[in-house]
Design goal:
This protein has 495 residues and is an alpha+beta fold. The protein contains 13 helices and 16 strands. It catalyses: an acyl-CoA + a 1,2-diacyl-sn-glycerol = a triacyl-sn-glycerol + CoA; a long chain fatty alcohol + a fatty acyl-CoA = a long-chain alcohol wax ester + CoA.
Amino acid sequence: MRKNPLSVDTAGSNGTAAATGAREHGELVSPSARLVEDFYIVVVIGVATPVNLPAARAGIEAQLARYPRFRSIQVKDGSGRPRWVPTTVNLDDHIVYPRLDAAAVARDPDRAVEDYVATLSTLPMDESRPLWEFHVLDFPTSEAAATTAIRVHHSLGDGMSLLTLFMACTRSAADPARLPAMPPTPARTGAIWEQPRPPASAGALALAAWAWSFAVLAWHTAVDVASFFATILFLRDPHTLFKRVNHAAHQRKRLVHRGLSLDDVKFVKNTMNCTVNDVLVGVTYAALSRYYFRKTGDADTSKEIRVRSILLVNLRPTTSLQACLNMIESGKGSDVKWGNELGFIILPFHIGLHDDPLQYVCKAKKIVDRKKSSLEVVFTHLAAEVILKIFGLKAAGAIFHRMISHTTISFSNMIGPVEQVEFCGHPVVFIAPSGYGPPEALTVNFQSYVNTMMVNLAVDEAQFPDCHELLDDFVESLRLVRGAASSLGKNNKND
């Protein structure tokens, strides 16, 4: 039996007045959080059972006390600077149980979920309340018994911090008494651009090569910084079918996803001696190329088009998500860096046709390795803070918007649990994070969960009415790359 919808008070919260009295004592909103005031994160979660609303409410309420940002609103102090100020939270304002057209749900429940999530990109959030919502769609689809869409304002945190928070709210499905198992701590320590110093016994040549790597780092950084300023001032991507057509109008975003085999991704990674991220960038090259040449009907297989993506990079110290979860669980959540700790790099994407599918991965690895030998990501993070401090929010926002609109795609990749988890007692079937707000027609996000790599697309609905065909291209591209890697492995064994 369907539960009655929860009431949603759109008149505002009584906590605002109390917050005003305490505005001088709240934590300042970070510069990076102020730059993403129009950006929102949407995480679609499928669960294996119908929603037990009392259990879900109790679980959400229990977690709120641990995360002050989810109990705070932004209030300007006497000097006009926004601060995080605690306020009263009414769960009925944040848990939405919408009434959908029963006929539409019965006819195509998957489409009903997709359409509802798309409408969220057109609806503002009430800034008099903490900026997060749970939208419960309690009916079965082809993927899950029920679906929840979590909408969070980007100022509350970036994808990595919000994923860590979400994981801290879950438990292992195999053993609900413990936290979920996460991927092991990365073998690499220190910054990604840092080359480990060779021991003295390695000889003078090895030490000279190590010292030379810093000269290369400085040169690459100078080139990337010049490209960054050129992008802001005049350098823009060519107009392709991936480029946003109308930057002035706000377009409704359709958020779609498709599961890929994580085992296939890892097989290619091991065969090509690269990283998972290299494989995903290469598969994205291949998928966009298939889509482009099919849609345009261009038969020139020698043509190669260069566009650029904004690749988000986590700037937190290299550690495991498990370590962060353990700190939260032990009551040391303040030791975890919340908020937006991101830089970005401008990553070239190549659109072209290759006879050998592995060429996409080889090209991706070469470009990503080159970007690792640069301080571009640190510079972009610091530049955002300096520009905001010197020129103010309006000018900094215009510069940020201009840089994004001069590129074509946003891209990110996040690591999730390696085992199935439960959220408030509900076994999670899939996790599909995405978002809207950036002035781009296409955003690509990858999210791993157990043995699935979910590719999530946020597309301008009018510009990509056939976005599911683009998802098909991701599936087919990985299949071709996996097949080519398998053939390469067999040939190497025969040799």
